Amino acid sequence: MSKSIASVVFVRHGESQGNAKNVYTGWDDTPLSIKGEQEAEEAGLCLKAKGLKFDIVFTSALQRATKTAELALKVSGNSSVPVDKSWKLNARHSGGLQGLTQADAVEQYGEGKVTTWRSSYDILPACVDRSDPRHPVNDPKYADVDPDLLPPGGESLACTVRRVVPHWKEKIVPHIRAGESVMVAAHKNSLRALWKYLENVPDEDALDIKMMPASAPLVMEFQIPPVGDDLIFLRKYSLNAPTFNPKVRIDAALSNGATNKVFFLRHSESLGNAKGLYGGWEDAALSLKGEQQSVQAGLLLKQQGVTVNHVFTSVLQRAVRTAALVCSASDNVDVPTTRAWQLNPSHSGVLQGLTEKEAYEMYGEEKVKHWRGSDDVKPECVDNTDPRHPANDKLYSEVPVEELPGGESLQMTAARVIPYWTKCIVPLLTGEQNILVVAHRDSLRALFGHLEGVEAGTVFDGTSQTAPLVYEFGNDATFFKKYSLSTLSPELGLSPKSLGLVRFHNQPGVHYEKVGEVVILRHGESECNLKEQFTGWEDSGMTAKGIEQARKAGRFLKEHGFKFDMVFTSVLSRAIESAALICEESDNKDVPMEKAWQLNARHPGVLQGLTKKDAVSLYGKEKVNLWRGSYDVMPETVGLDDHRHPVNNPLYSGIPKRDLPPGGESLARTVDRIVPYWRGSIAPQVKAGKSVLIVGHKNSLKALFMYLEDTSEHDMFDVKPVSTTAPLVMEFGLCKFSDRLMILRKYFVKHTTEEGLALSQCKDGSFHK
């Protein structure tokens, strides 16, 4: 008999080698990158932590999805589960874009077309014909599929919906109805297509459906009607939403508003790990993969803007080197670092340096498993004449010999780790401190058991080599919340229909609460726009058409009764004038206006003031398109003696030179300046329930949207452009467990999405230079 309520787990594939190269992959069968493999293993750790067991798994025919499923299942103890692979769960076929980088795509098709294809629900990209190797009919994997059923050389999201939904109904739902536990591992747009159907999301909102990180499995719960091939969607939540200490009252822990965060990280892969050796206190170096894992962990800290105040590691080089690479990649240089032997792993005694096979041969499988599986049983010890005994290692020359172990149980490890934590680390938790601890599996398990008040042996080994596990502490150094840093990306977007049903796993009182709203417009047409020049930071005035565009936007806002508490704009006159006209027409002229250079347009370097024709003539089409079509490629910058450099403009006379762009910016650098401004100046207004107007520029707004919508650099052209006349509204909610803003609803005022996009285009079909 089937259950009346069913849960389905969805996993997004990890980063592929194509993603890492910033290539449109589509149906190209690119494998996972090292980072992607780690993401899949993290997802598996999360499944293991929840004790989930599956009866069947559905995935696509592409190896980046099948390998993700394989790794997640292996780590979570589900290796023997049958896996059903189908092309119908494949990624959206990207047509002529497949295999191209963003810059190549812009050069070949133009920015306007690429943006239209990527940000529209039902507009097909340029399709490849049947003679093209990228067409599915030429791939042996699909030799048994009727060619007429395969994509016609390219797909919109609407096309993807039409193949994914029947597969769900015909192949997956029967297993759910039969009471089986189901997991689906697929791709961004095949999952988005399915969720659009399951959540009944309107076509115009389908591309705004949030994706979870690859390391964070998503659960959807359904009610199962007695008959039919459909299910009723109830709610969705991330499996690794933060967990709270049930013994601590959150309001008491935060009584002074100050928290401390400790970022725990397991050292990256060592050469001993790679060889399958019991490492213990053997001082093995990191492998190449381990060094790459350390850098990934550091980039995650950098992405979250974490400033580390102090680092603690064991004395073993695999932990010390991990910490050094993490700090370097996260821009936390010259941080005080303490190395302590008390944070070393459990000493594995006579097993140290042996493979599992060798250990079984020497001591017997039963004995080895007893040593490894018991918290209070230590392995056979080495004596102090054995080279493996710490007394013979100069690392411990200043430690009394009687304190050094020749073998340890987990309880013995806890007996040295916990006092060190209490005596040396806890005193630093004085409020708003960020501490990084890089250690080992058993030393971390012992510490987590102490923090959570449970036996160390019962603590789930959820430490990752690429994503720190964060424990937050109140003013009395009592742990009250923990979460994986990799899952701290923006909260999952939900359709308005399902919003009232949102609850988080094991947190029935936690929900999204609507707070403020932001209305966003691009400035009206400027003189430089009229001349089709790259404007950048040039302070170009508005045309008569631009003035009318701003007034028209204001009238739309007035018709819909928008009243603002605050206006934010750049310091460039075209944005300031537009904001003033919009406010005047919408009866908001007395609203406070804050002008910030951080909201300026992207500085195009040597392109500033040039038409595209002149730019191509001077620098070549390939170089211009690379600068304009890439996320992190800097344009050629102007020198300090060039009038286009910001240091020569009185508008920026009070700003430190190091904060200003170095004569040009990539989109990545634009993100780096606008996100801190959002967090520090705009987000607090939204959290306070205010209604905010932002009048900005094409690329500064794109940079902001990439952050708010958690858009990867690979998907930068998925970001919808902003119109000068069609106000774009974002309604925000506040997630109580993370105190983060999320977009609840996004819509154009007065226009459909298609009309809003059309009004965003210039006369040549591109989207505001």
UniProtKB/TrEMBL annotation:
<keyword id="KW-0324">Glycolysis</keyword>
<protein>
    <recommendedName>
        <fullName>Phosphoglycerate mutase</fullName>
        <ecNumber>5.4.2.11</ecNumber>
    </recommendedName>
</protein>
<dbReference type="InterPro" id="IPR005952">
    <property type="entry name" value="Phosphogly_mut1"/>
</dbReference>
<dbReference type="InterPro" id="IPR029033">
    <property type="entry name" value="His_PPase_superfam"/>
</dbReference>
<dbReference type="InterPro" id="IPR001345">
    <property type="entry name" value="PG/BPGM_mutase_AS"/>
</dbReference>
<dbReference type="Pfam" id="PF00300">
    <property type="entry name" value="His_Phos_1"/>
</dbReference>
<comment type="similarity">
    <text>Belongs to the phosphoglycerate mutase family. BPG-dependent PGAM subfamily.</text>
</comment>
<keyword id="KW-0413">Isomerase</keyword>
<dbReference type="InterPro" id="IPR013078">
    <property type="entry name" value="His_Pase_superF_clade-1"/>
</dbReference>
